[in-house]
Amino acid sequence: MSSKGRPYRTLRVDGYEILVGKGSRENELLTFEVAAPSDLWLHVGGGVPGSHVVIRNPGGDEVPERVVRAAASAAAWYSQARSRGSLEVHVCRVSDVRKPKHAPLGRVEISRFKKLHVTASLPEGDDLS
What is the pTM (predicted TM-score) of this model? Predict the structure, then answer.
């Protein structure tokens, strides 16, 4: 699936579709209009600007750790902190992401999340469009 003309990039890892927002407005669209409540949502922690990342999970099943780590590494890659080495990435269900009232574009609050420490990179050998 090509990302041309869409508000997100598309990666594929082990059959899972990973969507990566291209900017603040696109992050909002991806998180609140494209993603389903059972999808996983990822973003670099610590208030660092970066892309919202969504792992499509239509069945609501457990997403394999390899896929989550690949998506977390992509979230780190598409952040302004990619050169820092190891980064903390927050992972939660889209249903645990909220938009605070009067918050600027792309700003969200999350609940029930876990933290992963990853190095910024894109998945190797997988489709990136």
Answer: 0.90
